[in-house]
């Protein structure tokens, strides 16, 4: 990871990408998917709670989406073809319409004992 200065002299961490990244258009699948309406927190509310604390830290749950398994009977729905062959995801890729709410629901279930008391969760970010 590199740290770069922006136009306001703020230091911004930048990830170095030196590998292939797959980008798949799931618009048709998303249109056919019944949406999960699990509520996502508003980031400004999370930050307001943090502002009242004397100490805090941020952790990025890198590859958070990829920790959630797709049911075997649904994996074929994520199939894509590229130069190297035809593949289907066995874990939840970024881009599915229910991915954010599924991840948020999972994180809240895992950390329910710590939430509000000493921890906040915003999708794959832990504060």
From TrEMBL:
Name listed for the protein in its UniProt record: Retrovirus-related Pol polyprotein
A UniProt-annotated Pfam family: RVT_1
PANTHER family the UniProt entry points to: REVERSE TRANSCRIPTASE DOMAIN-CONTAINING PROTEIN, TRANSPOSON TY3-I GAG-POL POLYPROTEIN
Highest taxon of source: Eukaryota
Organism annotation: Mucuna pruriens
InterPro entries documented for this protein: DNA/RNA_pol_sf (IPR043502), Rev_trsase/Diguanyl_cyclase (IPR043128), RNA-dir_DNA_polymerase (IPR053134), RT_dom (IPR000477)
Recorded name of the encoding gene: pol
Domain Reverse transcriptase: 18-127
């Amino acid at each position: 990871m590199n740290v770069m200065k922006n136009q306001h002299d703020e230091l911004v961490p930048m990830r170095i990408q030196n590998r292939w990244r797959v980008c798949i258009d799931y618009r048709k699948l998303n249109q056919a998917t019944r949406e999960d309406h699990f509520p996502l927190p508003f980031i400004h509310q999370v930050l307001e709670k943090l502002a009242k604390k004397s100490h805090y830290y941020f952790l990025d749950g890198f590859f958070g989406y990829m920790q959630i398994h797709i049911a075997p009977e649904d994996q074929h729905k994520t199939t894509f073809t590229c130069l190297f062959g035809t593949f289907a995801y066995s874990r939840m890729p970024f881009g599915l319409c229910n991915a954010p709410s599924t991840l948020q629901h999972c994180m809240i279930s895992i950390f329910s004992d710590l939430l509000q008391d000493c921890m906040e969760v915003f999708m794959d970010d832990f504060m």
